[in-house]
């Protein structure tokens, strides 16, 4: 509707005078002049080239006026632009209303808002996607790193010693050729990891100098990353190593660290749930920390305060504050949880447990609610983890199960249809309509990634689970069941012609696309 009104705007704006249409004067005549709003360049198709030619580093936000994320970003983006201007940085920020500048939006493939792209040295054909944080400091640092060399050249022993002591974590690359391929990859990684200082050494006499800290000097020491001359330096591998080592050995789960923890891409998380108001429980962190170093990069160790910020995640583990202290290991790819028997919290016991999980010797701990007393007398059978297999894997029944979350709006929208389906088939001996709350129950061999998820388990030996992905209404559900777990093929659509057209528009993608709440 908004686009339609925009297209119609000029036609609706005219007045008829002496038989001619006289268009109203445009409110703004666009030229190549560069105008600013709060230190941010206002860009459009007429001044875009000029902006690129005058500013060798230009970060452009493509936005939509109605977009809530864009509205929240706007003051942050403006403050970052002001900081860069006050520093006389060559880096500038600009913005494009992508709903009004369709040509620019199409040229740069803008499909969501906001989208940020960096244009360098007037190059219009290969902008760089923004990969930094969406806060003032993150934007400023990201641009600063690109406005100057991404790594500091360490020319002598004094410079090297000062650099190593400048922060808790620094990265130093040793290259005989700073123009070589490996060094260029190093510079590329340095440009992305803007929160970590990068240095480079070329002087051979510094390669083995005594001022480089030995591995035993710090709590976690020095980590070396030798470059294989045959393979070269792999940017993704180096980036992962540095992200892992930029984290503390043991993290505390807080509002400030939660994003960092979940974006770390470490495959397993070992969690110690404790009550920080208890000195006895706080002492358990010693053994926990002692075990952490053995699994750096493979397992992230996290302390969760059950009376603080961590209280919100307890239901995900089926825990209450009274269960602390306790330990859980989570496999992040499928959210499988493993429970350690708490006879001891020693570092030896923790290491042994984790290694057993990694070796596949421990079964996951599966949550299950208690079944309601009338779970099997309702039209829609209420399944829980401990009753699921006896119902879903009954070879005499065709079982249709809805996996849902109580908070899921899509689940709520289809609830009435599912109840009606249960009523329709409650007297069929070989058909069972059931549901399972996936936030309170876990299954060993079935992973649910979004809600609602519908699975059909046909009767008979050797049966295979079928995922239902069609319309969520009673009639379509019934066709699926009556046809043995598939939908009958519809006759091919008859092409519209003036003779057979009904004049009815086909449903749009928005009307027909399946949507569900992802985990």
From TrEMBL:
It is an enzyme of class 5 (isomerase). Residues 480-519 are annotated as: Disordered. GO terms for biological process: protein folding; response to endoplasmic reticulum stress. One of its GO terms (cellular component) is endoplasmic reticulum lumen. CDD domains: PDI_a_family, PDI_a_PDI_a'_C, PDI_b'_family, PDI_b_family. It is found in: Endoplasmic reticulum lumen. Residues 3-148, 357-486 form the Thioredoxin domain. Disulfide bonds join 67-70, 408-411. Keywords: Chaperone, Disulfide bond, Endoplasmic reticulum, Isomerase, Redox-active center, Repeat, Signal. The keyword Isomerase applies. The keyword Repeat applies. One of its GO terms (molecular function) is protein disulfide isomerase activity. It catalyses: Catalyzes the rearrangement of -S-S- bonds in proteins. Residues 502-519 have a biased composition (Basic and acidic residues). Its EC number is 5.3.4.1. InterPro entries: Prot_disulphide_isomerase, Thioredoxin-like_sf, Thioredoxin_CS, Thioredoxin_domain. NCBIfam families: ER_PDI_fam. Belongs to the protein disulfide isomerase family. This is protein disulfide-isomerase.
